[in-house]
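User: quick one, fold this
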Amino acid sequence: MKATAEPSLHARILADIEGQILSGHWPPGHRIPFEVDLAAHYGCSRMTVNKALTQLAKTGLIERRRKSGSYVTQPHAQSAVLEIRDIRQEVQSLGVPYAYELLARKSHRATPADRKRLDVPADSQILDIASRHFAGALPFCFEERLINLTAVPDAATADFTDIAPGPWLLDQVPWSAAEHTIRSVSADRAVAAALDLSIGTACLVVERRTWSGGDYVTHVRLTYPGDRHALVAHFAPTHPK
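Assistant:
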């Protein structure tokens, strides 16, 4: 009986701990209860608990530190430089719940800064949107987006409360070209507040302009905590003709 019960208990421990992590109840950095405490809770040997924790460490959900214990790992995402990807997909690829929050939206006449980013006439109307994307309980990305309402008039009445503007635009407007600018910055007061960071924390910023035909559609600035994000580009050598 013991040989058949052991795998079932092992699976239960795995499922319980995974559930606590993936639900966000145990956020990144949370210390997992000690092996001796888990063994007492489940009424099993420490060897059974150790086996479950070792498996969770192999999958990347937890980090085991000698003499300190086991901790929920920080999710580390990768974005493709040469693609326009939905942030929801980036988060879900980490195996954690995704959430989106609209922080602010307003329409106004293009400012000089807006005209520089979108190359639009002075009398153009712009939709200015700020939002946050979450991975589990942690802010994943701070999004600041300008939409050219001349190119996308339907955006003026679109409800961005439940859907982020990025996937909405990809569904509505067939973009023909895009431009990426990538740099590192120190979090200012607004970014620090949005991402729950200390002012001055290193962040990764991806700025992107997209256009359809001859019209610029949108300019977006995506700011990520620098220690939890990486950019990846896939390319091949150019062969001379």
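User: anything notable?
Assistant: The radius of gyration is 23 Å.
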